[in-house]
């Protein structure tokens, strides 16, 4: 296990501690705001306009996951319908992402499906697209099943996320490409055991490149979500060597990280999309961002003393 992977595992373990969470919720909001566009939809829509003006597309995410009561899922569903309508009314270039546990997957799978279906149906009315985020492995198959079921109903304006660190990923990609499901390809940000996921970063990156190639070689539109220069430069080189158009894929990065690089990619003619969350339920998202690499934590620590 390399030092970066050890760091990630330790920080994810610490962040699950109740005391750490309480202290973070009390003192960390200002620091977390770097990664979050605001508490309200109005703030988020204004920031989307700002990013669009720089050539950056957006995926808008309303923060929330792991709900404890199904009534919370109804509230999230209604907020997503409002934000889809808001995107259309504002005329901004943004699709949306949601988490299945936010919609009730852990509590009532059928209710969850109904909630997600309502959001996807509303998005279809506005010719918009919904990405169902991939959470940790207890929900992997259920998430894929939701997407395939929606496609079978004719709601094809929905896709999901595939995580390169899982052993099952290559077969999932084959199935979902055949089903014409649009995918966001990521390394993976949850703490997973060695029984289901690669533990060495070199193995994760190799598998990541493999599933990117599977898309590009088949002419399937490819969404590559990474801040890793090794991956980004490899994609650029691979596309150039194989005469793959810059319109055939997009890079995706997170709001608050490498914003100058995102603007540069847009100026260089690449399609770039910023994953931009808003809302008050920021702690789980924030801790995963810090766990991705030590540089993110160091950036926050420096800001504490400014």
Automatic annotation (TrEMBL):
It holds the Pfam family Pro_dh. It catalyses: L-proline + a quinone = (S)-1-pyrroline-5-carboxylate + a quinol + H(+). Its EC number is 1.5.5.2. Pathway: Amino-acid degradation; L-proline degradation into L-glutamate; L-glutamate from L-proline: step 1/2. One of its GO terms (biological process) is L-proline catabolic process to L-glutamate. FAD binds at residues 134, 163, 187-189, 226-227. The keyword Lyase does not apply. InterPro entries: FAD-linked_oxidoreductase-like (IPR029041), PRODH_bac_arc (IPR008219), Proline_DH_dom (IPR002872), Proline_oxidase (IPR015659). The keyword Nucleotide-binding applies. GO terms for molecular function: nucleotide binding; proline dehydrogenase activity. Keywords: FAD, Flavoprotein, Nucleotide-binding, Oxidoreductase, Proline metabolism. This is proline dehydrogenase.
């Amino acid at each position: 296990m390399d030092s970066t992977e050890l760091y990630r595992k330790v920080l994810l373990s610490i962040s699950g501690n109740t005391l750490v969470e309480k202290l973070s919720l009390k003192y960390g909001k200002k620091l977390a705001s770097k990664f979050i566009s605001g508490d309200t939809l109005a703030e988020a829509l204004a920031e989307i306009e700002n990013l669009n003006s720089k050539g950056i597309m957006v995926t808008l995410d309303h923060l929330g996951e792991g709900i404890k009561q199904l009534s919370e899922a109804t509230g999230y569903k209604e907020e997503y319908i409002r934000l889809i309508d808001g995107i259309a009314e504002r005329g901004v270039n943004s699709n949306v992402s949601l988490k299945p546990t936010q919609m009730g997957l852990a509590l009532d799978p059928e209710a969850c499906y109904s909630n997600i279906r309502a959001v996807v149906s509303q998005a279809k009315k506005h010719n918009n697209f919904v990405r169902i985020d991939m959470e940790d492995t207890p929900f992997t198959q259920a998430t894929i099943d939701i997407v395939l079921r929606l496609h079978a109903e004719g709601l094809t304006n929905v896709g999901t996320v595939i995580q390169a660190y899982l052993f099952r990923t290559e077969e999932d990609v084959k199935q979902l490409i055949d089903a014409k499901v649009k995918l966001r390809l990521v390394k993976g940000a949850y703490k997973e055991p060695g029984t289901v996921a690669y533990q060495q970063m070199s193995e994760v990156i190799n598998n990541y490149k493999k599933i990117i190639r599977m898309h590009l070689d088949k002419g399937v539109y490819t969404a590559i979500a990474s801040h890793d220069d090794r991956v980004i430069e490899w994609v650029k080189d691979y596309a150039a060597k194989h005469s793959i158009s810059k319109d055939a894929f997009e890079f995706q990065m997170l709001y608050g990280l490498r914003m100058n690089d995102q603007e540069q990619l847009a100026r260089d003619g690449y399609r770039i999309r910023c994953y931009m969350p808003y809302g008050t339920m920021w702690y789980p998202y924030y801790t995963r961002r810090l766990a991705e690499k030590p540089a993110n934590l160091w950036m926050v620590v420096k800001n504490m003393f400014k």
